[in-house]
Amino acid sequence: MSSLIDGQAVVRVENLHKSFGPLKVLRGIDMEIHKAEVVVIFGRSGSGKSTLLRCINFLEDPTEGTVEVDGIRVGPGHRTRAKREQIRQLRIHTGMVFQQFNLFPHMTALQNVIEGPVTVKGTPKEEARAVGKELLAKVGLADKAEEYPIRLSGGQQQRVAIARALAMEPKVMLFDEPTSALDPELIGEVLAVMKSLATDMHMTMIVVTHEMGFAREVAHRMVFFHEGQIIEEGPPSQVLGQTRDPRTRKFLDAVL
Fold first, then answer.
1. What is the mean pLDDT of residues 145-153?
2. Sign of the alpha-carbon torsion through 129, 132, 136, 138
3. Radius of gyration of the chain (CA)
4. Which of 196, 197, 195, 201 is nearest to 214 (CA)?
5. What is the rounded CA–CA span in Å between residue 84 and residue 69?
6. Could you tell me the pLDDT band of residue 5, with boundaries at 50, 70 and 90?
7. Pairing state of beta strands 172-176 and 94-97?
8. Of 28, 30, 37, the residue nearest 9 (C-alpha)
């Protein structure tokens, strides 16, 4: 897929390790994601995909290695006051969309979208509301601004979650299996919004998904995780069509 990718790395991950007690989940991950690049990460459950995303925005602290987002570089170790501020700045530049939508149930769709800019960035409420309405329109939910999450379908809730992440004007969007909790007929509407982010907004995106059709159509690069390591990576045409590693091929044969 053609793109406006430039040489600037928005995300750098260097020698990233993550252990939970004796369990090693990530084993020396090195990655660079460039501006406007869409990278799809795939692999079996437990291979470390979601843990990588959670380490990139420090929902999990890496055991070893460094993460850099938009020039903000953070390593492992205790969360001193200075490090907590670094993490806060890094998160401001990093939008994340989860499997479960994690919307505040007591807030309308619009209130969910503007909560971050108002409370974290100090954006005036009316300004935030105007931007929030624009973003809800962008994800096809202009008419749902005053609805509460319970009144929305799963696909609509996930699109609100995407708008909420975009409201912080992130440099990179992280998607952790954003369609896995959705009924099959709702998956397409979420993938369509994600495709629009890539093609219309040229958003830098790291997407953990098994939606190979989306990967083939939208991704610039696919990365296969196996037991906490990168086994294979390359453009979709190569990874899907001319697989080099038999473990990748075995996985693809099971999901395609």
1. 97
2. positive
3. 18
4. 195
5. 15
6. low
7. parallel
8. 37
